[in-house]
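Appendix C: a fully annotated inverse folding record. The material below is reproduced so that readers can follow the format used throughout the book. The structure is listed first as tokens, followed by the designed sequence.
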């Protein structure tokens, strides 16, 4: 029981850190944001993954941030890490599927969207992603 309590505490800590990183990223919506500020926020996300290397959610949010900030190859590396950690994570599969689709890697995208549907069949967004694109 103690191990389960520790894992719940660790998960809660990761989610608190994720919320902090997302809050920092809100500043990037300002069109006058500096490169220095953008790099500072990126470092917050990178530190989150370094501090929590076994956390799929930490790698997922870093991957999303990197993708949205023009670093697709590094983003895919982190989505793949998240998928190794949690092979049936629908969020990861959806992120990878979208990235692969935008890169023209259609077969890989379809596999990821199908995995998302299989992993979380009650989520209509994953069904839509699969049906809308294939």
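Designed amino acids, in order:
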């Amino acid at each position: 029981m103690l191990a389960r309590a520790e894992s719940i505490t660790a998960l809660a800590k990761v989610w608190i850190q994720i919320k902090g990183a997302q809050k920092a990223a809100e500043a990037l919506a300002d069109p006058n944001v500096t490169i220095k500020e953008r790099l500072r926020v990126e470092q917050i996300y990178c530190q989150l993954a370094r501090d929590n290397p076994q956390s799929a959610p930490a790698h997922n949010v870093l991957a999303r941030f990197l993708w949205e900030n023009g670093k697709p190859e590094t983003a895919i590396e982190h989505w793949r890490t998240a998928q190794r950690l949690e092979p049936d994570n629908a969020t990861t599969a959806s992120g990878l599927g979208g990235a692969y689709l935008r890169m023209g890697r259609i077969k890989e995208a379809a596999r990821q969207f199908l995995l998302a549907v299989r992993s979380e069949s009650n989520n209509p967004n994953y069904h839509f992603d699969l049906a809308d694109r294939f």
